[in-house]
Protein yippee-like (Cepphus grylle), 165 residues
Amino acid sequence: TTALGTLLRCFPCERLCGGCTLPPGAPPRPPGALPPAMGPPRRRLPPAARLPPRTFRSYLPRSLRTYSCVHCRAHLARHEELISKSFQGSHGRAYLFNSVVNVGCGPAEQRLLLTGLHSVADIFCQSCKTTLGWKYEQAFESSQKYKEGKFIIEMSHMVKENGWD
């Protein structure tokens, strides 16, 4: 009868709260008694759903066509900030943007690029730390001055999002 009493006492607890756990010194529950009222049972979430949401420094409006990091989907630039699609990055085609968001900047260094000597700083995604391209800090030839303060992002590191039909 003791085993039957334990079974009757623990089955409701097992189903509702995971087991018959009484605080030390508490009187035992009578057979068949339910545990004290608790909130609704918690639903188990898949492991990916338990991760905290990613937060970015800046979010671009969902109604606008945007470019995002292909690796982590952090917003990078609005389509309206695109200046040119005919640039060459270190590893392939690249776009020139007037401004970008959610990027960090490394130290400036001088590089001899296809269009001459420039002072550039590598830029990286603030979320996943992937190097995306560079920022033109200074151009030494007068015909290249328009690039100063602009950003190159390689196409292989970007994805188009929102309203690109």
